Amino acid sequence: MNHFDLIDGSLHAEQVALAEIAARIGTPFYCYSTATLVRHYTVFAHALEKAGLDATICFACKANPNVAVIRTLAELGAGADVVSEGELRQALAAGVPPGRIVFSGVGKTRGELEFAVAKGIMQINVESEPELELLSSVAAERGIRMPVSLRVNPDVDAGTHAKITTGKKENKFGIEWTRAHEVYRKARTLPGIEVVGVACHIGSQLTEVAPFREAFLRVRDLVAILRADGFDIRRLDVGGGLGVPYEDETPPHPDEYAAAIRDTLGDLGCRIVLEPGRLLVANAGILVSRVVYVKEGATRTFVIVDAAMNDLMRPALYDAHHAIEPVTAPPPGTEPVPVDVVGPVCETGDTFARQRLLPPVKAGDLLAFRTAGAYGAAMASTYNTRPLVPEVLVKGDRFAVVRARPTYEEMRALESLPDWF
Ligand code: LLP
User: Fold this and answer.
1) How many Å apart are CA 136 and CA 124, to the nearest integer?
2) Residue 415: predicted pLDDT
3) Which of 252, 303, 328, 336 has most Cβ atoms within 10 angstroms of its Cβ?
4) Residue 77 sits in a domain of what CATH number?
5) Does 322 contact ligand 1 (Cβ within 6 A)?
6) What is the Å distance from ligand 1's center to 401 Cα?
7) Does residue 119 sit in the same domain as residue 252?
8) Which stretches of the chain drop beneath a pLDDT of 70?
9) Is the CB of residue 60 below 6 angstroms from any atom belonging to ligand 1?
10) What pLDDT shows up at residue 160?
11) Could you report the per-residue pLDDT of 308-332, keeping only the tens digit for each?
12) Atom of ligand 1 nearest to the CA of 105
């Protein structure tokens, strides 16, 4: 469910015509809908509430670190899951209370740990013994014990794309689940660590609930072992990963997901920390692009648009599907034709869709790429020296540019010629 709909044949974000935004700020741009963000968060929070879970929802900022997006969710009560000092700074700037921020990630540096400890965030999810030792020394230097969950790797196949599977033993993430007890014992001996829980995240864009259950049952077993050994385990961080429909997937409803958590972990008396990213923001965003040329190739028609793989990497990186539709609806009865939708970047990988059925389009037409609110702008780059794509947030009949398109001068200002020239 989202709030991008046709009104009088023209695609709107809530009550704002996308064509109007395009006319004002140019293309390409990302557009997010506040009502959709609110709806997704509310449905998710209600599902957890209905399941009777004591839950803290920490939005995985990596999916969309825009400060206005984080702020929209923070106003609804969301905390934040961050994986870098940059994301932590974004979350704090958006007004997320430090007591609702979790810091995850496999390679946190000393500087990042020092910053997080100084800010007094809720917890750090530690992924290795060397990280545990470094964090202990950082926290002990300040005379405190940092609340920590160890991220365990449950060796469960999430059944998703290989590049976004994280919970198999060959993946770099977490502490091998069979060794976890030993590492917890070590954690107990360190002066700057206060063990509070267990964390686990098995992958992203999961479309089945079974792998979650399997992983949560392993967490449950581990909690029993740890408690028997005297650990006061009071928080369980179940990560993120619940998928969204891009094409014809039918991911579990949040109710089903919440029931899986309740059934496997609900009776342990722990606070449940969740790190949803995609689920909250994917369908709340679209990428709007303009057709530059329509080119007849030897075997196919290419629709060349002004967005490229640097703006929306997912198709190039994961062969991901994003629905594409014209911003101005074609007249009823228009026959769709198969086209390849491509960007201007000098790589064949810069292809958004192959042989996609679209109504005939011409240069100047606007196209919307759906479900682009997660890992869209977040993963954009300036490849081919293209300015980062701007972001717009809509609320009702209002819109605001929440990240401006940099000028070429601003881009070049970061570079300089050494004095030997
Ligand atoms: N927690 C941790 C520790 C994570 O690594 C991730 C995602 C999340 C939470 C949020 O997962 P979500 O609820 O969004 O599935 N760029 C890829 C997705 C990478 C996900 C990385 N980790 C894509 O565009 O599909």
Assistant:
1) 11
2) 96
3) 303
4) 3.20.20.10
5) no
6) 25
7) yes
8) none
9) yes
10) 80
11) 999 999 999 999 999 999 999 999 9
12) 3
Q: Which domain holds residue 113?
A: 34-281
Residue 277 CB–ligand 1 contact under 6 Å: yes
Q: Is 270 marked active-site?
A: no
Same domain, yes or no: 274 and 349: no
The owner of tokens 């609930």 is 209
One domain for residues 155 and 14: no
Query: Can you give the pLDDT at residue 167?
Result: 73
Kindly give the distance from the C-alpha atom of residue 300 to the centroid of ligand 1, in angstroms, as a whole number: 35
The CA 275 to ligand 1 mean position distance, Å, reads 9
Q: Given this model, what pLDDT does residue 364 score? A: 98
**258 shares a domain with 289:** no
For residue 378, give the ligand 1 atom closest to its CA: 16
* 206/87 same-domain check: yes
Question: What digits encode the pLDDT tens for the residues 217-270?
Answer: 999 999 999 999 999 999 999 999 999 999 999 999 999 999 999 999 999 999
Distance 63 CA to ligand 1 centre (A): 7
CATH code at position 350: 2.40.37.10
Q: Are residues 112 and 190 in the same domain?
A: yes
pLDDT at 402: 98
Which amino acid is present at 281? V
Position 178 scores a pLDDT of: 86
